[in-house]
Amino acid sequence: PGDSRSTSKRKVIAVVGGGLVGALNACYFAKRGCGVELFESREDIRQAKIVRGRSINLALSHRGRQALKHVGMEEKIVSKGIPMNARMIHSLEGKRSPIPYGKKGQYILSVDRANLNKELLTAAEEYPNTKLNFGHKLLDWSIESGAMTFLRSDGTKMEIKADLIVGCDGAFSAIRKQFLRQSRFNYSQTYIPHGYMELTMPPKNGDFAMEPNFLHIWPRNSFMMIALPNLDKTFTCTLFMPFEEFEKITTGEQVLEFFQTYFPDSIPLLGEDALKRDFFRLPAQAMVSVKCSPYHMGNKCVIMGDAAHAVVPFYGQGMNAGFEDCLVFNEIMDQLNEDFNAVLPEYTRIRVPDDHAIADLAMYNYIEMRAHVNSKWFIFRKYLDNFLHFFMPNKIIPLYTMVTFTRTRYHEAVQRWQWQNKVINWSLFLCGTISAVGGTFLLIRHLPQSPSLLVDQLWARVQVLKGF
Ligand SMILES: Cc1cc2nc3c(=O)[nH]c(=O)nc-3n(C[C@H](O)[C@H](O)[C@H](O)COP(=O)(O)OP(=O)(O)OC[C@H]3O[C@@H](n4cnc5c(N)ncnc54)[C@H](O)[C@@H]3O)c2cc1C
Ligand SMILES: Cc1cnn(-c2ccc(OCc3ccccc3)c(C(=O)O)c2)c1-c1ccc(Cl)c(F)c1
User: Fold this and answer.
1) From the CB of 138, is ligand 1 less than 6 Å away?
2) Average pLDDT over residues 266-288
3) Residue whose CA is closest, atom 13 of ligand 2?
């Protein structure tokens, strides 16, 4: 087989998967001076028409931006993103409640998935030490030799070796398949009963149909819908609903009936005909949560992004976590002088707890939103968060703020949130007890007579009232 392993000092990295994380990783390794060969099963999306079936836009937040910043891509991506400074909660009655994310600089960005992927591929390609191979699908690889077998779009096969294989081939990773054959490799996957469907909300009179700088949310317990703005003044609405509910809706009239019941304010904005058409354009897509460890095999291979940790999208963190994987791996490469024997196990040791934490958080959010969260509860919770944070800014930091607007390690954010909840619950218990004791004391203290006399007086009044 072709052997790309370096004879010189320069290491050759094979990045498998040219999606968001693979393309960014190619930039990271190329910037480091490695020889990078990226292999992507699809044809070059920069030449192909738009690929359907993945979310059209995504929420980019602090972790992802920091990762892009390291390879000089933050400005380019942010300039094509639309800031969302607050949530806009839509009630069943059509009332809209804006709830800011927090301080001025705290906003998330709606970015176009295809454009982001194209920009990252082009950035990777600009490095002289990078080669992008499209139409190359990894079939198998050997943990012992590190040899990889690719099926090319012309039907031929090719084998190559590299100094390091970086598996960024998504939730159904072929790289990870080999990991599953190894002992002591832990793996779990969960398909949730909800599916998702994307609908497009067109511009109205040439402008956005709703306020553009918001993450629009219609929380209806087990039905949820969100809308993120696009540069072409459309919104991409994502409807989350149990598959069994999707399956009950088989006619255009039933679509309208459903939206009239749960999301009435969105019907005139989506357009009745477009809604009836779009709803049946693609089937609802499944959502899977994947957790595994370790993330590496020997000194040969490491997995990142959805290949290592596919998360349900109820925190808007999947891509942000995958981008942060690249940043963390790079930081460890610097610390351990690119010694793969040390870097790979250290990456697993550091990153597994954090990616498991965000996978659990996203699932927790899904379960919490599905069970409790309607618009009133959503608004109450967020006002409570903001109220507590306002009065105790260094004591109480909302979990969503830590996850979305800081690089606090995900597992530390969860630990802090659990501690904060204890403090809040204790404080509420204490306040409750103090006011109960205090109230009773005041009642007894300022009563003119003994309590029994008071009861007689109250009873007499009841008899009088009974007489009316
Ligand atoms: C509905 C929905 C909404 C989301 N919203 C957000 C959001 O708001 N914010 C956020 O941060 N994240 C969000 N995500 C998550 C985000 O989409 C993923 O975390 C992200 O795409 C992961 O990137 P990746 O590169 O690891 O995997 P992918 O994007 O899946 O890319 C994997 C690539 O590998 C290629 N590939 C697969 N198998 C092979 C093979 N055998 N050989 C070669 N190539 C192969 C694929 O063609 C693909 O190009 C959302 C996800 C969904 C489903
Ligand atoms: C794409 C994206 C980016 N961030 N978020 C997000 C997620 C959860 C949130 O709160 C959880 C909560 C609210 C109220 C009570 C408990 C928990 C908030 C928030 O605080 O605004 C924002 C999403 C998103 C993704 C899917 C759905 Cl269904 C959704 F509604 C939003």
Assistant:
1) yes
2) 96
3) 378
The response to whether residue 146 sits with its C-beta less than 6 Å from ligand 1 reads no
Distance 315 CA to ligand 2 centre (A): 6
Q: How far apart are CA 429 and CA 189, in angstroms?
A: 39
Q: Is the ipTM of this complex over 0.85?
A: yes
316 Cα–ligand 2 center, Å:
7
Share of the chain above pLDDT 90, in %: 79
CA count, 13 A, side-chain hemisphere, 122: 12
Q: Is 324 close to ligand 1, i.e. is its CB under 6 Å away?
A: no
**Total-model pTM:** 0.92
- Between CA 65 and CA 240, with CA 288 as vertex, the angle to 5 degrees is 80
Ligand whose nearest atom lies closest to the CA of 42: 1
